[in-house]
Amino acid sequence: MALLNSRPTRSKFHRLPSLRREIHRPRLPIIRLTPIPGDPLPLNYVGRCDFKALRLNSPIQIQNRAIPPPAEAFESQSPTPPTPLAAADGRRILLSDVVVRRQREVFWGRKWTSLDIGTAGVVVATHLLTLLAPFHFNSAAFWVAISLYIATGLFGITLSFHRNLSHRSFKLPKWLEYLFAYCGVQALQGNPIDWVSTHRYHHQFCDSERDPHSPIEGFWFSHMSWLFDTNSIVQRCGEPNNVGDLQKQPFYRFIQNTYLLHPIALGALLYAIGGFPFIVWGMGVRIVWVYHITWLVNSACHVWGKQAWKTGDLSRNNWWVALLAFGEGWHNNHHAFEFSARHGLEWWQLDMTWYVVRLLQALGLATDVKIPTQVQKEKLAIINTT
């Protein structure tokens, strides 16, 4: 899921936000282990920790999901060993059973880099611009914001950056893949390479001390403050060498190297068409709205909601986030079947992104559309009952 964190590179123009990564891995049976006395966070040497252990009155389980992803998406790496967690914080997040293991302090007690300052500056500037919305309202500006919300949020972030590029849940003709990815660039959440890398790391290390944004380090850290420590992902996960499939394509390298120019160009176009109200609503209100919807998938969907599947992490199905985020709120379903283009697995689970994928499939534009089979769902259901 992604949301604004861009890691340092040689490029001058893409040094801003990048949001939230993953590849389908076959599931092996859950192995129940006895926790080690005195160990604040048991880890699986070959998999990731089941953070049921972080929820009150829950047994510790560890699920081995260490099957390596396809080589074209993840290149070999030697990650730095994770830093042990500090003593457990022990505070429960409001209205949730999730316990904060350690409170991550981002704003104080560390040196801010120029990239940190730039990222925070963009987030603050867009929020301040939003405050002017009541004074610069007109119907045309409002509908510009709605249109861009759909174009950048639905087509750009949820369909392109997340389900198509991060998870390869379906294939598109290159011209359409690049068009949708360009819509995602205009969300001002970072270039596709950095966004996808961060999201894939999130799934690889979900809700462990190496996860780029987990509520085990505090709700607001998982929601947005992780964005302001731009070196954190490299320190936790290593260099972004899990996106070889995108880095070998000239289009994505070009977007990475010229990232900031594209939203600036959009802002200039909006100003030329509709003046300052189009800037306020098209580049202020719309961007902030899509920011927080994306961030809620990282925070709220790991804190509030229900778990239909035992995925070995804190992911939840959250209906109100699903409504706002075009189906992304069915997050536990997504973590259970990371490869699936469909997140709303039940007929009543509204998933606008899936409906668009189905339309593209009917038109012959989306191919190799992946969804979990009944056998796969039954197999996971059997695991959940053991």
UniProtKB/TrEMBL annotation:
Recorded topology in the membrane: Multi-pass membrane protein
GO molecular function, one term: oxidoreductase activity, acting on paired donors, with oxidation of a pair of donors resulting in the reduction of molecular oxygen to two molecules of water
Domain Fatty acid desaturase positions: 143-358
GO BP terms: very long-chain fatty acid biosynthetic process
GO cellular component assignments: endoplasmic reticulum membrane
TM helices/strands, residue ranges: 112-135, 141-161, 259-281
Subcellular compartments: Membrane
Cofactor: Fe(2+)
Keywords: Fatty acid biosynthesis, Fatty acid metabolism, Iron, Lipid biosynthesis, Lipid metabolism, Membrane, Oxidoreductase, Transmembrane, Transmembrane helix
Chief subcellular location: membrane
InterPro entries reported in the protein's UniProt record: Acyl-CoA_DS (IPR015876), FA_desaturase_dom (IPR005804)
Pathway info: Lipid metabolism
Family (UniProt): Belongs to the fatty acid desaturase type 1 family.
Domain-level remarks: The histidine box domains are involved in binding the catalytic metal ions.
This protein's name: Palmitoyl-monogalactosyldiacylglycerol delta-7 desaturase, chloroplastic-like
Species of the source: Cucurbita maxima
Lineage: Eukaryota, Viridiplantae, Streptophyta, Embryophyta, Tracheophyta
